[in-house]
Amino acid sequence: MCGIVGLFLKDRALEPRLGELLTGMLVTMSDRGPDSAGIAIYRNLSDGQAKITVQSARPEEEFAGLGDALDADITISDTHAILLVAESRVTEVMNTLRERHPGVRIMSRGAAIEIYKETGLPRTVADRFDIPALAGSHGIGHTRMATESAVTTLGAHPFSTGPDQCLVHNGSLSNHNRLRRKLARRGVRVETENDSEVAAAYLTDRMAQGDDLGAALQASLDALDGFYTFVVGTQQGFGVLRDPIACKPAVLAETEQFVAFGSEYRALADLPGIAAAKVWEPEPARVYFWEH
Amino acid sequence: MQQLDLDRQSLREVNATLQAQSDHTNQPMWEIVNPKGAHAIACGLDADLDVTIRGSAGYYCGGMNKRATIRVEGSAGPGLCENMMSGVTVVDGDASQYAGATGRGGLLVIKGNAASRCGISMKGIDIVVHGNIGHMSAFMAQAGTLVVCGDAGEALGDSIYEAQLFVRGSVASLGADCIEKEMRAEHLERLAALLEAAGSTTDPASFRRYGSARTLYNFDIDNAGAY
Fold it and tell me: Residues in domain Glutamine amidotransferase type-2 (chain A) (predicted)?
């Protein structure tokens, strides 16, 4: 199964409530996947600066002195930390992390994106990172019932394979190994054995070649084989795609204030103004995306 | 009217209350408030009840219904009225995939659109959709009637047996062994009756009829290579 939620705010007045609303939506979807949960949230966009979200199984040891060692501002949140650095230093800092800090995993990088994910139920994961208190412009959440790879923090969604990009997936892909090899030949690296991460990397690769989110999603209809409902985030955008067979459920809702996605209507039922929202099931093989 | 509240009562309590109503109840009118997309609302009813769900329902709403009238004042999730036996269900909004699957009788009315696999393996149910239906609808449909006032998606009626399909708009493609058929007087009469029962004023003469070419009924040695 797996449960997906997404919230893209059009009305900035709702931004302080993003974390709270997204958490409520995700907790409602808990019974679709109890293995792990994660949230990507786009917030505090600042020009010239970049955030690197890192995770460690031993945060006390690994995060102690990490900010000084990297010459970065560090904000620690349980097993995760956000490193704030000048945008020009992102590659250098990421290389240093990979070479000298093998106990620290890079979750995402970008001007706005932060990712928090762990094994466990959505309620537990959201409380560990105090997600309800986070303000932001848009966010995506996932609760996982594992099929294609192990139940680990790194196997949890969302996956981020490019700056300010992330993807969550309900379904399973059958050609991910071949696609992983193809991407590797092009120099695109993925961190895990997970099928969904390959889909994220594919979209990142398309966007690196100049596609916008919509065009990248359109291309994935030909490149990917399997079952999927994807929700994808970029710095300014939010996209949805279902495979042509469309077995995996999806509901979209739109009002003047927001666009919301849920694997089921239950996830949307408590959103403000939902009674007057336009609510519909996205068509199979049709790309939907919104940008700020 | 009796009220059941899913904010205060468990789903099991709500369904058990409705299932316990006998034919001779003097309280046939019920409403269910705060459905909020919950699953399996009003399943397994077996009495002449009139149940209104005040909002949207989730998976498997109205499954296995016998005789009851169920109204959904919103949309319904996947598996609406699965294996319905008799009675009437009316959904004001849309229905997700496989609405009316395997239904044996009764009337299912969807005033919005139905998604993929509407009426899959239907066995006698009548389904009227005021809007469009998705792909693979009426797959292996055996008996009953599917009426679509809008358009139908790909592979309509694939491997169909004896169900009758009426579509007013376009059909993206017909499935294996499904063909367009002549609309005769008895079909128009049947269609008019169903449209009236479903509260549609659409002109029966504006529909086309589809059904089985019956070429898959018996094994044909010329097709052996296809397996």
Answer: 2-292
Of A245, A247, A279, the CB nearest to B75: A279
DSSP letter string over A11-71? SGGGGGGHHHHHHHHHHHTGGG--SEEEEEEE----TTEEEEEEE-SSHHHHHTTHHHHHT
Q: How many residues belong to chain A?
A: 292
* Set of chain A residues whose Cβ sits within 8 Å of the Cβ of B97: 246-247, 249
Residue A27's identity, in one-letter code, is: V
**Candidate from A249, A280, A284 with C-beta closest to B78:** A249
Complex ipTM more than 0.90, yes or no:
yes
Per the CB < 8 A criterion, the answer to whether A38 and A6 are in contact is: no
One digit per residue, the tens of pLDDT, for chain A of length 292 reads 799 999 999 999 999 999 999 999 999 999 999 999 999 999 999 889 999 999 999 999 999 999 999 999 999 999 999 999 999 999 999 999 999 999 999 999 999 999 999 999 999 999 999 999 999 999 999 999 988 788 999 889 999 999 999 999 999 999 999 999 999 999 998 988 999 999 999 999 999 999 999 999 999 999 999 999 999 999 999 999 999 999 999 999 999 999 999 999 999 999 999 999 999 999 999 999 999 8
Q: Which of residues 195-224 of A touch B (CB under 8 A)?
A: none
Interface of A with B in 233-272 (CB under 8 A): 245-247, 249, 264-270
Per DSSP (E only), the strands in A174-236 are 226-233
CA-based nearest distance A239→chain B, Å: 20
The half-sphere exposure of A186 on its side-chain side, counting CA atoms within 13 A, is: 14
Angstrom CA distances, A111 to A53, A68, A144, A165, stand at: 11, 21, 27, 10
- One of A1, A2, A77, A179 is an active-site residue; which one? A2
Tell me the pLDDT tens digit for each residue of B39-66. Answer: 999 999 999 999 999 999 999 999 999 9
Q: How far apart are CA B16 and CA B3, in angstroms?
A: 14
Radius of gyration of chain B (CA): 18
Identify which of A249, A270, A283 has the shortest CB distance to residue B96: A249
Report CA Rg, chain A.
18
Q: Which of B6, B56, B91, B133 is the best mutation test for A, with the most CBs of A within 10 A?
A: B56
Inter-chain Cβ pairs, chain A and chain B, closer than 8 A? 44
Catalytic residue list contains A166: no
Query: Two tokens at B130?
Result: 């005021």
Rounded to two decimals, the pTM is: 0.94
Q: Is B8 an interface residue toward A (CB < 8 Å)?
A: no
Instruction: Kindly list the structural domains of chain A, giving each domain's residue range(s) and its CATH number in brackets, ordered by start.
Output: 3-45+118-291 (3.60.20.10), 50-111 (3.30.70.240)
Considering only CA atoms, which of B75, B17, B18 is closest in space to residue B50?
B18
